[in-house]
Amino acid sequence: MQGGGIMRIGNRLFQFIIYFLVGFTILAAKERFSEDLFKALKYRNIGPFRGGRSAAATGVPGNKFLAYFGSTGGGVWRAK
Predict the structure, then answer these.
(1) Which regions span the lipid bilayer (predicted)?
(2) Bond from prior residue into 61 cis (ω within 30 degrees of 0)
(3) Which residues in 11-40 are b (16+ Cβ under 10 Å) and which e?
């Protein structure tokens, strides 16, 4: 088996690269930011705002791109 040595070297190289990448990722994840950077942030709702409730939804057999939606306030919506 002449290719056995080359395969072994390839496997070792692959393992080394994986260990290197995992180690590098762990070191990068340990990098922390100062908590002072986040003190000025405040929670706010930026949407999307709820427009209403849906009563029913259905698709059209044979046409996977067509659907109908019924709302509790009345009305039917068609989506293509």
Answers:
(1) 12-29
(2) no
(3) eeeeeeeeeeeeeeeeeeeeeeeeeeeeee
Q: Please, what sign has the CA dihedral across residues 35, 39, 42, 46?
A: negative
Phi, psi values for residue 67, rounded to 5°:
-145, 155
Distance from C-alpha of 52 to C-alpha of 33, rounded to nearest angstrom: 40
**Angstrom distance (rounded) from CA 73 to CA 65:** 25
Enter the pTM of the model: 0.34
Q: What is the DSSP letter of 36?
A: G
Helix (H, G, I), strand (E, B) or coil at 74: coil
Q: What is the pLDDT along the chain (80 residues), one digit of tens a residue?
A: 455 666 788 888 999 999 888 888 887 776 677 778 888 888 887 766 666 677 788 999 999 899 998 887 778 889 88
